[in-house]
Amino acid sequence: MFELESQPDVRGQRGAHGQPRSLVESSGGALSVALIGLILALGAALLLPWPTASPDDPPLTTALHYARLAEQAGVGGALPGLVLDAALYVALVIGIGAYVVARLRGGYTALGILLSVGLFGLAYTGRMAVPFVGPLVGLFGFALVVSGAGVAWATYETPEKSHVEPEAVGVDDDDRAGAELRTAIEAQQAEVDAGKRDTGINDDVSYSPA
């Protein structure tokens, strides 16, 4: 009897033609969530009011983010604040690029960059989210980026992870039934042979001369 190897159903782990699933197939929904977050954050930066950076303005004075950046540059604001405001646009451009690379080619590097962009955005917008609409929407957008990139990272299947080794299993039901039948026949034949031997010995004893 020979053991048979069965191929497990790997359609859930592999795409067409038995190839490992791409990042879009395994985590396309999570990447879409990250894209929505990037769009929200970009829209908040370009279209919604943010608090001004000038210390002379009243506390609730707002302006568009690029006006805030220009104001800081014009009045000679603090360098760390100016760098952080400018870094928001750099982070958004990098995040969009990382999303495109992750969508087209996959890879943990692109997902890690996208996740880092989301974390930076959370830290930047979280310190001034309330009660300003721009930072609040940006905070929600970057939270979506972190969520989408994190889920995509967790569910991304590299070729090594998606490769499934076939598992060796025992004989199938038909072979097992045949083996049991042969064993029963052999046992029955052994009993018949033993009975014949016993009968032959008894005949020899009965007809032996006195």
Strand order of the largest sheet: 1-4
Low-confidence stretches: 1-20, 164-171
The number of domains is 2
**Succession of helices and strands:** EHEEHHHHHEH
Beta-strand proportion:
under 5%
Mean pLDDT: 78
Structural class: mainly alpha
Biggest sheet record: 2 strands, antiparallel
Polypeptide structure, described:
The protein has 210 residues and is mainly alpha-helical. It has 2 domains: 20-162; 173-206. It has helices at 23-47, 65-75, 79-104, 108-126, 133-155, 159-162, 173-206, and strands at 5-6, 49-51, 62-64, 167-168. Strands 1-4 form a two-stranded antiparallel ribbon. The protein has a two-stranded antiparallel ribbon with strand order 2-3. The protein is rod-shaped.
Helices and strands in order:
Blueprint: E1 5-6, H1 23-47, E2 49-51, E3 62-64, H2 65-75, H3 79-104, H4 108-126, H5 133-155, H6 159-162, E4 167-168, H7 173-206
Antiparallel strand pairs: 1-4, 2-3
Helix pairs in contact: 1-3, 1-5, 2-3, 3-4, 4-5
Task: Output the keywords.
210 residues, mainly alpha, 2 domains, two-stranded antiparallel sheet, 4 strands, rod-shaped, disordered N terminus
Tell me briefly what this model is:
With 210 residues, the chain is mainly alpha-helical. It is built from seven helices and four strands; from the N terminus they run βαββαααααβα. Mean pLDDT is 78; it is low at 1-20 and 164-171.
